[in-house]
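Example record for the data management plan.
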Amino acid sequence: MNIENQDFSMPAQLALDGFAGRIAQTIVHSGLNQTEFAGKLGVSPGFLSDVARGNKRPGTEFLFSLRSVFGISIDWLLTGLGTPNCPCASGH
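Corresponding structural encoding:
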């Protein structure tokens, strides 16, 4: 199967469209306000706000911090598939 001419961007974009909502949901379920949540991740509240509104796409360090600090599944964050909790992280 030749994958060179296939367009994979549309399904990935559709999955990422819900990314900001899943970040916002994660913040709400943490019981922390955005400033506290951002502090635990080592990012500014403004950056976190931009991510939660879909204005910025965070990098791998941010995703790894979410997994390490809060036990959030990166797969779930990126695709919406599976469960929010990562079985491989200890959570907070």
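Summary line stored alongside the record: Residues 1-15 have pLDDT under 50 and may be disordered.
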